[in-house]
């Protein structure tokens, strides 16, 4: 059975969600820094649209982090979502 790169799956999921939320889809950048046991998914968007990603009282970014947490538990790997400039 082919091995699934869990961090890559999470990266693609975050990228799709972010592109759905913002107006300038082409400015969504998702970077993946992968270690042996931990992976960091870094989400960058246009600074004019950072509020859309964060949401009111941080609700949207918290929901995205919950999804990442659930996926990381399934894949038995610690995956962290970071949103710089937030």
Structure, explained:
By secondary structure, this protein is of the alpha+beta class. It has one domain (6-82): GMP Synthetase, Chain A, domain 3 (2-Layer Sandwich). It has helices spanning 6-21, 50-54, 59-75, and strands spanning 29-34, 38-44, 78-82. A three-stranded mixed sheet has the order 1-2-3, covered by helices on one side. The chain is globular and about 35 Å long. The N and C termini lie far apart (40 Å). The model has no long low-confidence stretch (mean pLDDT 89).
SS class: alpha+beta
Q: Low-confidence spans: pLDDT under 50, at least 5 residues?
A: none
Question: Into which percent range does the helicity of residues fall?
Answer: 40-55%
What is the H/E order? HEEHHE
Q: Structurally, how many domains make up the residues? A: 1
Mean residue pLDDT: 89
The CATH architecture category equals 2-Layer Sandwich
The CATH fourth-level homologous superfamily: K homology (KH) domain
Name of the level-1 CATH class = Alpha Beta
Rg over alpha carbons:
13 Å
End-to-end C-alpha gap: 40 Å
Beta-strand content: 15-25%
- Overall geometry comes to globular
What's the arrangement of strands in the largest beta sheet?
A: 1-2-3
Features:
86 residues, GMP Synthetase, Chain A, domain 3, single chain, alpha+beta
List the helices and strands and how they pair.
Elements: H1 6-21, E1 29-34, E2 38-44, H2 50-54, H3 59-75, E3 78-82
Parallel strand pairs: 2-3
Antiparallel strand pairs: 1-2
Helix pairs in contact: 1-3
